[in-house]
Amino acid sequence: MIELKTKIIELYDSAKSDFSSDDINCFEEFKKILNTGKVRAAEFINEKWVTNEWVKKGILLGFRMGIIVEFSYTDKKVFYDKHTYPEKTFSIDDNLRLVPGGSSVRDGVFIASSVTMMPPMYINVGAYIDEGSMIDSHALVGSCAQVGKNVHLSAGAILGGVLEPIGANPVIIENNVFVGGNAGIFEGVIVKQKAIIAAGVIITAGTPVYDAVNKCFLKKDKRNPVEIPERAVVVSGSRKLESNPNFSVYCPIIIKYRDNSSDNSVSLEMDLRIFDK
Length: 277
Description:
The protein is an alpha/beta fold. It is 17% helix and 27% strand.
């Protein structure tokens, strides 16, 4: 692994555009371990999410290496994209559900067993989807986004991709989070365990989020993304402009922290997550 990491960094930093067969084999080995989840764009280390810059360099290297080719699956299904990133293929042994109807997963994505994907949805390169999660219709999981166990990403929800700049944190959704329909999480925002993001809520790195329970805005700075606390229930709201109180601007609000009522409202139907052994 250390040798592969060193080679990927060297290839990326070289800025070369003419690659040897050894270079291409190195990238394919990198993509293999990306597909199996042995490496990922961000890891939880010492109680903190840490971005693996070399992994993002490897993903970008694949775009530099790639040439545009035609992918023909049927007479009506033809695509033109970099040859290094074809559509990911699955088998029955992967023990997941990919429902027919126009969904697509790019190569270089880790999908754990017991994940359900409803059509049409899209998962981009570098993403990581852990066990028991559901990616619902019209949802988008952007480049390098990290999704934990038993997450429900509702219809039309978006997790923004963060491939550049290299050091920028990807969007991270921890275990047992519920993301409502048409919600959007962008720019390296971290949603901690068991939080609920209500339908239509939009959160970016620069979005002030007000905690109505503790009567304060969540702390944020340029180096650290916004973190939605564990069990927080976030809804759309507004706040008055200090410069002109006659006007208000959008503001997500933590209206409460999860209780039995909110747990019941987002309980998962395990019938959808039963797989043959």
